[in-house]
Hints:
The structure is a single chain. It is globular and about 50 Å long. It contains two helices and 25 strands. The strands form six sheets. The protein has a five-stranded antiparallel beta sheet with strand order 10-11-12-13-14, with no helix packed on it. Strands 1-25-24-23 form a four-stranded antiparallel beta sheet, with no helix packed on it. It has a four-stranded antiparallel beta sheet with strand order 2-3-4-5, with no helix packed on it. Residues 1-25 have low confidence and may be disordered. It has one domain (33-381): TolB, C-terminal domain (Neuraminidase), CATH 2.120.10.30. It is 5% helix and 42% strand. Helix 1 packs antiparallel against helix 2. With 382 residues, it is mainly β.
Amino acid sequence: MTRIFRTWILLAVGLGLGPTWLSLVHAEPKGLLETIKKHKFLSSTIPDNGDVNPYAIIVAPVSVGLIEKDDVLVDNFNNISNLQGTGTTIVRYRPSTKETKLFAQVPQKLKDCPGGVGLSTAMTLLKSGWLIVGSTPSKDGTTRTKGDGCLLVFDANGRHVATWAGPTINGPWGNMATVDRGDAATLFISMAGFDVPSPDVIDPKTQYPVVKNSATVLRLELEIPAGKPPVIQSQTVIAHGFSHRADLANFLLGPTGLALGADDTLYVTDGLDNEITAIAQASTRADSAGKGRLVTKDGLLAWPLSMVMTDQGHLMVCNGKNGQVVEIDPIAGQQIYAHWLNANQAQSPPGNGNLFGLAMAPDGKSFYYVEDDINAIRIATP
């Protein structure tokens, strides 16, 4: 404590200002974002094949195979020609050695995955070592040639071992929320591909591509036999009716962020409607809650994308229309704070379109994020 600061405290006490004034001086941060002071570049996400546009980012919960606990895994949505829906690679960054390596790669035209491969923000690593990632593919970089896509399963050495497709899976898009019990797991995945038209189909009123309300949230119950890949035991659509549409600059817009609260409430970002909603009893419900209960809308939100839950129980969500991340108290429905992660003046507003994936760091005080404009992993710290 500095001498000047001590003098102010003694003066406040002498004037009888007491604990109220002191509480203002020592006011605790309302959330995590107010404590963030530094942003550090960690690594490029571009592998040798030239894939770009990093989307998903996750932190490894265990050491298994080629993965070390706390490794950071990132996938790419675009190929070297910058065509969206054609990225086929997952890279691994190791904080302990600052080394980045290719972890997994699959052919763009992959058997059993309708339409091929374009790795999306839907990715999770189970404690048993199985990596599951979504594919929302295209042949020309737009939804004109979009395929239904699939979910791909990799082992801990980066080998592709299984493909999941079917009528409930179409455009696996948003970051997954996961409940991992070791020999079983529950996954929540947004599906933004149903009934998405070409970007050439324009709404005469808005002059934007036609908006549909067919996006869903799918719950998958997995069994994980010892030494064998996970198997889907059941599938349930627990939410539906989210807005989505084609977009030339962003491929498609749809529900992207998923985060599960301690009370089994699943929170979902809906970028087109600029809101976050809540799905109650997410792990146990047998029906769809529709879009669920509105938590918060507009304000600091500017096309909310990926979302994570902090140790405090707050939501952090990155904006698609600017380079900010926003912290929200979901119980109070209160937007607490916005913090600039990317203020690139080349876009308007600054950082527009540069953010996507978020992941909490193991210390609970920092978080990783990707920057699409420079194809990089960065970390935000106190």
